[in-house]
């Protein structure tokens, strides 16, 4: 039987990470510069490792970890596809969207870490994952501000 105290939070974070992975893969496919393509693929790989850590914790707690992203993430991606068909994509607009996604992901992790309902072991896993998320967020934010300079 699953320990539900942390499973729901872990599932939500995993689903959001999968959205992030899909977003990075899409960004890599659509980026104009090979530098950005490589960066986004690398970040997708890093997020995959983090998602697997959360999946392992869900399994440890007796849950069934998600393999797919969220409906909201898929809907957002379809909107971006439509928007890019109309306005075109360039590296700056892709990086702006990636940063928006990073802000959302970082906020999800911060909300989870502020919860008092997490078991100590799960909190530790989420804190480790958050460090990776925060580093990715800061990297994209720095990249965005570097393009604007």
TrEMBL record:
Signal peptide: none annotated. It comes from Sphingomonas arvum. Residues 9-114 form the DUF2383 domain. InterPro entries: CHP02284, DUF2383, Ferritin-like, Ferritin-like_SF, UCP029477. Gene3D superfamilies: 1.20.1260.10. This is PA2169 family four-helix-bundle protein. It comes from the Bacteria.
């Amino acid at each position: 039987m699953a320990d539900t105290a942390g499973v729901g939070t872990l599932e939500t974070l995993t689903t959001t990470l999968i959205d992030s992975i899909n977003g990075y893969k899409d960004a890599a496919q659509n980026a104009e510069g090979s530098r950005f393509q490589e960066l986004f693929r690398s970040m997708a790989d890093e997020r995959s490792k983090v998602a697997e850590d959360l999946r392992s914790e869900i399994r440890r707690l007796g849950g069934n970890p998600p393999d797919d992203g969220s409906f909201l993430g898929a809907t957002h991606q379809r909107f971006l596809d439509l928007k890019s068909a109309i306005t075109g994509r360039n590296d700056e607009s892709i990086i702006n969207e990636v940063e928006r996604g990073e802000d959302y992901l970082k906020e999800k992790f911060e909300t989870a870490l502020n919860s008092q309902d997490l078991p100590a072991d799960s909190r530790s896993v989420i804190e480790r994952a958050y460090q990776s998320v925060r580093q990715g967020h800061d990297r994209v934010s720095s990249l965005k501000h570097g393009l604007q300079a």
